[in-house]
């Protein structure tokens, strides 16, 4: 007598090797394919936990960037209201452009943050690249146009170094985690 499984959708009997349920026609998925790849030894499990923590920290760093942009938007809106009260149309247009750009980058980082849930390595790497380029442009512009703000620039550099450090650790962990999972899949297929 052949070994039978039950259809997850209708509960009907499915013969081993069938691709579709004969009762309801739904595609057969075995319980084995629904489980996550097994990490075979304790050392790999500990590594996976360590990498997951660093990946989550990388995602949180992206969230910090989103919050910083939100603060910039709020401050820019306050400046826009002040400029509107003083009838300074040139500065209010510049602040409006600043708000638009900040909201655009907030949307980009929100998308990267969501993408990092499923594909952390490319998402965190992209966030790091964009952040590094924007920080470099911002620091150069600040030093050129407002050189008397050296203290504020130094604080911003320190904050940026911390964010870049956490993002870098997240990238490394995501890469190593993917390699660990790929190695586990390769071992389970043999």
Q: What is the total domain count? A: 1
N-to-C series of helices and strands: EEHHHHH
Structural class: mainly alpha
Poorly predicted regions: 31-37
Overall pLDDT, averaged? Answer: 80
Strand order of the largest sheet: 1-2
Shape: elongated
State the total count of DSSP E strands.
2
Helical fraction: over 70%
Protein described:
This protein has 190 residues and is mainly alpha-helical. The chain has one domain. It is 76% helix and 3% strand. The chain is built from five helices and two strands, in the order E-E-H-H-H-H-H. It has helices spanning 31-34, 42-85, 89-118, 120-145, 150-189; strands at residues 4-6, 13-15. A hairpin with a 6-residue loop joins strand 1 (4-6) and strand 2. The longest helix is centred in the middle third of the chain and has 44 residues, at 42-85. Residues 31-37 have low confidence and may be disordered.
Write a compact overview of the structure shown.
This protein has one domain (42-189). It contains five helices and two strands. It has helices at residues 31-34, 42-85, 89-118, 120-145, 150-189; strands at 4-6, 13-15.
List the helices and strands and how they pair.
Blueprint: E1 4-6, E2 13-15, H1 31-34, H2 42-85, H3 89-118, H4 120-145, H5 150-189
Antiparallel strand pairs: 1-2
Helix pairs in contact: 2-3, 2-4, 2-5, 3-4, 4-5
């Amino acid at each position: 007598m052949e070994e039978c499984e039950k259809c997850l959708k209708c509960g009907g009997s499915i013969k081993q090797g069938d691709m579709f349920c004969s009762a309801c026609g739904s595609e057969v998925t075995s319980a084995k394919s629904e489980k996550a790849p097994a990490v075979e030894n304790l050392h790999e499990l500990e590594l996976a936990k360590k990498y997951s923590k660093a990946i989550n920290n990388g995602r949180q760093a992206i969230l910090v960037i989103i919050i910083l942009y939100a603060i910039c938007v709020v401050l820019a809106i306050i400046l826009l209201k002040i400029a509107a009260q003083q009838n300074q149309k040139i500065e209010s247009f510049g602040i409006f452009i600043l708000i638009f750009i900040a909201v655009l980058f907030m949307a980009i980082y929100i998308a990267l943050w969501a993408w990092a849930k499923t594909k952390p390595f490319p998402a965190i790497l992209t966030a790091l690249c964009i952040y590094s380029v924007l920080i470099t442009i911002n620091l150069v512009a600040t030093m050129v146009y407002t050189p008397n703000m050296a203290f504020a620039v130094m604080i911003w550099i320190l904050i940026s170094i911390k964010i870049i450090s956490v993002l870098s650790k997240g990238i490394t962990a995501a890469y190593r985690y993917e390699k660990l999972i790929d190695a586990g899949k390769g071992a389970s297929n043999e």
